[in-house]
C-alpha cells in the first residue's frame, strides 16, 4: 500500500472512531491494558524484522479462517471495507471475523487488520475474551491456498474510541503484522457504541506452506 493510498483511506478513521460497533446491545466492561496515545505523523516504514525476511518466499492469499487456541476461537473470515460513514466495516453476526480488504493481506508486508464484535444481541461474541491474550500467545490464520500462518502477540492497548493511533494500526511497515480490533469499555447508549477500542498487535512467526507452493 503506498503512502498516498494510506492517507486517502485512513484519514477518516481519526475523526469517527476506527471500527463500527453499533450492532452491540449489551453493556460490557473488560479488564483494560494501559492506554497509550500516539501521534499520527507521516514517517517511513520501520525496518524489516527477521521473521519478515524469512517469510518472503511464501505466496499467501486471501485469509479464510482465524484460530486462537487460548481463547477456543475458530472463526471464518470475511472481507470488509469502509462503511458509508467512513468506518471499518464489521461482520453482521457475532461469530465471524472481518478482514479489512483494502489493506494488507495477513502474512504480507504491512499491517493487516481483523475486527470482530465483543458482544451482540445474544450476549458475548467472538472477541469477548480478546483482552485475555498476552505477549507470546500464538494465533493462526489459514488462507485460501491452504497455508497456515502463525502470529505471535507483541502487545495490546486500549484507546478512546476517537483517539486510536491510526498509522500504527493500519499504516505502512516492512514487517508482517496482524492487528486484531474489538470494542471494549462501557457501552455508550447515547452514541450506540462502546467508549474504547482494544487492539492486539501481533507479528508473523512462520508460515506453513501447502505442498504445491
TrEMBL record:
<dbReference type="InterPro" id="IPR023365">
    <property type="entry name" value="Sortase_dom-sf"/>
</dbReference>
<dbReference type="Pfam" id="PF04203">
    <property type="entry name" value="Sortase"/>
</dbReference>
<keyword id="KW-0378">Hydrolase</keyword>
<dbReference type="InterPro" id="IPR005754">
    <property type="entry name" value="Sortase"/>
</dbReference>
<feature type="region of interest" description="Disordered">
    <location>
        <begin position="41"/>
        <end position="63"/>
    </location>
</feature>
<protein>
    <submittedName>
        <fullName>LPXTG-site transpeptidase (Sortase) family protein</fullName>
    </submittedName>
</protein>
<dbReference type="InterPro" id="IPR042001">
    <property type="entry name" value="Sortase_F"/>
</dbReference>
<feature type="compositionally biased region" description="Low complexity">
    <location>
        <begin position="47"/>
        <end position="61"/>
    </location>
</feature>
Amino acid at each position: 500500500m503506498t503512502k498516498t493510498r494510506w492517507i486517502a483511506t485512513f484519514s477518516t478513521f481519526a475523526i469517527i472512531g476506527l471500527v463500527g460497533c453499533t450492532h452491540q446491545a449489551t453493556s460490557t466492561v473488560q479488564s483494560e491494558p494501559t492506554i497509550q496515545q500516539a501521534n499520527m505523523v507521516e514517517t517511513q516504514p520501520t525496518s524489516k524484522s527477521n521473521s519478515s525476511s524469512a517469510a518472503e518466499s511464501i505466496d499467501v492469499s486471501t485469509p479464510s479462517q482465524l484460530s486462537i487456541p487460548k481463547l477456543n476461537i475458530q472463526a471464518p473470515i470475511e472481507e470488509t471495507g469502509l462503511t458509508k460513514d467512513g468506518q471499518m466495516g464489521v461482520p453482521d453476526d457475532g461469530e465471524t471475523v472481518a478482514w479489512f480488504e483494502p489493506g494488507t493481506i495477513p502474512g504480507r508486508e504491512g499491517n493487516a487488520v481483523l475486527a470482530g464484535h465483543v458482544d451482540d444481541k445474544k450476549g458475548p461474541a467472538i472477541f469477548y475474551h480478546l483482552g485475555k491474550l498476552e505477549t507470546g500467545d500464538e494465533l493462526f490464520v489459514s488462507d485460501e491456498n491452504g497455508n497456515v500462518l502463525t502470529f505471535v502477540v507483541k502487545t495490546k492497548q486500549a484507546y478512546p474510541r476517537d483517539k486510536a493511533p491510526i498509522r500504527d494500526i493500519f499504516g505502512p511497515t516492512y514487517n508482517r503484522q496482524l492487528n486484531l480490533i474489538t470494542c471494549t469499555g462501557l457501552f455508550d447508549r447515547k452514541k450506540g457504541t462502546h467508549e474504547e477500542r482494544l487492539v492486539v498487535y501481533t507479528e508473523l512467526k512462520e508460515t506453513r506452506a501447502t505442498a504445491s507452493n
